[in-house]
Design a protein that fits this description.
The chain is built from 16 helices and seven strands. The protein is of the alpha+beta class and about 290 residues long. The longest helix is centred in the middle third of the chain and has 15 residues, at about 135-150. The structure holds a DNA duplex (13 and 12 nucleotides).
Length: about 290
DNA sequence: CTGCAGGCCGGCG
DNA sequence: CGCCGGCCTGCA
């Protein structure tokens, strides 16, 4: 399979780069806060993940954070983008926690969270799969798709599977999808794949739109509602104002901020209170609530 | 064995 | 319009 990748004019080479440890970067917070599904903890405490451009391992060593892996583009460039390293989280934390003891607590707990810049296509499919589902099964389902339809990459004697491209996933029949454990979401993924391929849904263009109109467009896709759309926008399109409201966030927002069963009302409140950083605030709240 | 999990859709009042 | 049952599947 490495040969196949080479034929497409890509080379996967072993690379690494490191940076000084900072407080706004903790492996556990980043990978366990619920934003990603394909990062696994290794025995040595590091995490390995399959991302669009390859396989990456991140390890914390003393005062260093070490990135290594095989990527099709420069590893440092890839990681800077993926891990949102150009964003100053300390500044954002201050802004969203002014006069807010609850938010201060949530931030203290998830201090090392960073919002990852993941692949829009992968997020579209992953979050369609997330509906009325649980994390272990979501991860397993995505892994099934990758093993069955994605390219493989070898690193350090292990085989990893890339998330399938739209062209690769198009080969999946409804029956294939059912076998991959998608359940009732099979038809959504099947149709979304075709909408991307025929241009009905242009994720690249969509990412350039303002938050509200991008969300509206995403919600045209069957299987994509307000919550799923916000996840896609937040985790892959840099829309930090997107505030996904799921059952956990609903609970904590009702407890702390606004007592309403109405999702629109909650979104409105979050927009007013946290503004363009609502999505980042959401991650601190979500992680804090779910783990405590 | 019911109930339910990081929602969404469609039908009904 | 807002509300509510059903939906794949697996695990408590």
């Amino acid at each position: 399979m490495a040969i196949e990748l080479k034929e497409k004019n890509k080379s996967y080479n072993n690379k690494f780069f490191e940076m000084n440890a900072i407080s706004d970067f903790e492996l556990r917070d980043i990978f366990e806060c619920g934003q990603c599904f394909r990062w696994n903890k290794e025995e040595d405490g590091s995490y390995t993940g399959v991302i669009k451009s390859g396989v990456v391992n991140v390890k914390k060593e003393d005062e260093k954070i070490v990135f290594s892996g095989q990527t099709s583009e420069d590893l440092e460039k890839v990681c800077k983008k993926y891990f949102d390293l150009d964003r100053n989280y300390s500044e954002i934390k201050e802004i969203i926690s002014i006069d807010d003891e609850n938010m201060k607590k949530a931030i203290k707990y998830g201090n090392g969270i960073r919002i990852l810049n993941q692949d829009p296509w992968e997020m579209l499919i992953s979050y369609i799969i997330s509906a009325a589902n649980n994390i272990p099964r979501i991860s397993k389902t995505i892994e099934n798709l990758a093993r069955k339809f994605g390219k493989s990459v070898n690193m350090n004697g292990n085989t990893y599977y890339m998330f399938p491209t739209p062209e690769e996933l198009e080969k999946a029949t409804m029956e294939d999808l059912r076998e991959c454990n998608l359940g009732f979401r099979d038809k959504y993924v099947y149709n979304a794949t075709r909408m991307v391929l025929d241009g009905t849904l242009n994720l690249e263009e969509l990412g350039q739109l303002q938050y509200e109109s991008a969300k509206k467009q995403l919600m045209q896709v069957p299987g994509v509602g307000a919550k799923v759309a916000d996840c896609i926008l937040l985790f892959s399109m840099g829309k930090s104002e997107a505030f996904p409201v799921d059952t956990w966030i609903k609970k904590i927002m009702n407890e702390l901020y606004v007592d309403s069963a109405n999702v629109n009302r909650i979104n409105q409140y979050a927009a007013e209170r946290f503004g363009k950083y609502a999505g980042i605030a959401q991650q601190y709240l979500f992680y804090y609530k779910r783990e405590n």
